[in-house]
Amino acid sequence: MITRRTFLETAGVAAATSSMLRAGNSPVRVAVIGTGGRGSDLIRALTTIDGVELIAVCDDYPPHLEQGAKYAGPEAKTFVDYRKLLDELKPQAVVIAVPLYMHYQVAADCLSAGCDVFLEKTMCYTVAEAKKLTVQVTASKRVFQVGLQRRANAIYKQAQAMVAAGMIGQVVSIKSQWHRNNSWRRPVPVPKSDADWPRLERKLNWRLYKAYSQGLMAELGSHQMDVANWFLGGHPKRVIASGGIEYFRDGREVYDNISCLYEYELNGVNGKPYTVRVNYTSLCNNAYEGAAELVMGTKGSLYLTSAKGLLFQEKGTDVVSWEGNKDQPAADANAAIVTAGKTLKLSNDPWAHRGAPFEIDIAEGNDTRDELVAFVDCVRRQDAKTICDVNVGLADCATILMANQSVEAGGWISFPA
Amino acid sequence: MNRTPYQRSIEAMSTRFDVFLRGSKADYDEQHLEAVAVAVTEEIVRLDGALSRFDPRSEIARINRQAAKQFVRVDRELFALLETCEQGRQLTDGYFDVTRGGGWELNAADSSVRLAVESQIDLGGIGKGFALDRGREILRRFNVESGLLQGGTSSVLAVGQEVWPIDLRHPLTPELVIGQIELANCSLSCSAVRRSEQKTSDIVNPLTGEAIFGKAACFVLAADATTAEIYSTALLAMGLERASKFLAMLADGEEQIGWFEDDFLWLKERR
Ligand SMILES: NC(=O)c1ccc[n+]([C@@H]2O[C@H](COP(=O)([O-])OP(=O)(O)OC[C@H]3O[C@@H](n4cnc5c(N)ncnc54)[C@H](O)[C@@H]3O)[C@@H](O)[C@H]2O)c1
Hints:
The structure holds 2 protein chains of 2 kinds.
Chain A: E1 2-3, H1 4-10, E2 28-33, H2 37-46, E3 52-58, H3 62-72, E4 77-79, H4 82-89, E5 93-96, H5 103-112, E6 116-120, H6 127-140, E7 144-147, H7 154-164, E8 171-179, H8 197-204, H9 215-232, E9 238-244, E10 257-267, E11 273-283, E12 291-297, E13 300-304, E14 309-313, E15 320-321, H10 335-340, E16 344-346, E17 357-360, H11 367-381, H12 390-409, E18 413-414
Helix pairs in contact in A: 2-3, 2-11, 5-6, 6-12, 9-12
Chain B: E1 6-12, E2 15-22, H1 30-51, H2 59-66, E3 72-73, H3 76-91, E4 104-107, E5 112-115, H4 127-141, E6 146-151, E7 155-159, E8 164-169, E9 177-183, E10 186-192, E11 204-205, E12 210-211, E13 217-222, H5 225-238, H6 240-249, E14 256-260, E15 264-268
Antiparallel strand pairs in B: 1-2, 2-6, 3-5, 4-5, 6-7, 7-10, 8-9, 10-13, 11-12, 13-14, 14-15
Helix pairs in contact in B: 1-4, 4-5, 5-6
């Protein structure tokens, strides 16, 4: 039987905190390439981390560069050409948030320039690129991290530890989805009649065009399939998927909905393999269920989002012995311990008929900031073991791309060798 | 301009926001308006995520946890908002105070903040207005000439020259219309001591630390929503008498200020 105490220990992976980066050490010189939506989030987060000196921002679209420069502050230089930035400033680390089709080229150039690299998800536009990048990272011995921030999220870290500790029994299925209800379009600052519209449409709405984007699987599914890979401790064996453009017939080339069935082959305790099926769907025209994963085990289910984690015990099983705080020292109430392993508290959730829900209590932490804190910490220590390394990125990339391939080919697709 | 505006709504900052947009040029079709409206709502949700003191993931929550012990670095966007709050505090003789009298130190050299012991930041009185002002920037950047943005019905921002008629409702008896204004290219912020279902006010007089009482409501029209929020919160905390004196001393500006206690009256009209 697993008590609350044992899983606190299992889960006791202390998050790197910026307080580790004590003043006195010289700051890490960081540049950001790509200052659109995500780049701006990352810039804002970087400017709050002690020991980070944001030396430059780069974007080839002037309005976004201007925005990035505003968030970065007057000390950061601005560049239109990232190669010039690398030549002139030789940053120690770069944070890359350009569109997917540019990921490989920019990351490879930064590694060649000797930089440690934080690269947004999905790692690469093709598996071939992802493999080349993996070889380069490994040979270069640079610090490399992919921006799959659930790996830094306190709820997911706790949940993964709970699964590993057997708290929900044998995982039998994962059901996850990212459902939203909007066209997934960014506004374009000129009307369609303007001669510059086609260029700006493709520049700003790159997500919608196949030359730059791998659609919903890369932009949304990559986060959630990484959770499946992480929790199941491997990658899928094969997938069958179906998708299409059924509603937003506005000239886009990527699917506005996709449904996937993945199979993972795992080894049982008795050495006999068994299959776990993962259902993944993404929709652009119905937001019911939002973005979440439901990890279902023989003894319980974990419902996970970036902001909430719930454990539903299967009725009639003895999964968690809930002991309140009686075996915990009084200091357990203080934040430091709560951060290391999330306290479970009884929830008055309306879904109580599914079995008593426990809530993974998040005390603090923002996963985007925390993933950067962890990255900077690795850079500082020159530790290649980042929370989301190149092999994780490669597996994630291959996992999501095989679903797109299945839609196109029609039929089962195996994980690439 | 009689066409129904494009509308999109979102829940954020513990309330509902609505975005109404009208495209004036044939070129800016509904597809464009939808994309702009989504950009606005996503910006509001993003700001909620940064500014909410209830969300442990927010920047404000991080500051509230850490900044009593040391200076905490915050991003430039948030630091600029904190500076605006500080200017608002000075402008209103301390009656607008996001630390509720607790006090803080802002260090512009490295965008950092430190809280006095026991002090906590609560941007509830200004966050909605700030979000609406950011929404207006998006409308302008993407050439939407006319729009109405509102959060929780207490913060409203009309963008463009179109006139939007607004009913002012009695804070305790919302069926009663106590006044009507026409809003164009202007923001409106309303603060009331409490809503009908509340027993006490969530507005505190920062100088005494006590919740305000009574049944007053203050309505402020200003060029931007952030300013409107500062005045409506501060004036209500002052109470009618002090607010009247304060306004008499205030240099003529664009603001227009209405007060409701038993009747509606304008304390300051726009020049
Ligand atoms: N981890 C997350 O939660 C998350 C969230 C959103 C986006 N992302 C990822 O971040 C990346 C960027 O997405 P976004 O939403 O910010 O897109 P975006 O279009 O808003 O920003 C991309 C920016 O890169 C710039 N750019 C393109 N080519 C460039 C070049 N050669 N040199 C310099 N700048 C260049 C563009 O001008 C643009 O400003 C994508 O890979 C996306 O998947 C991750």
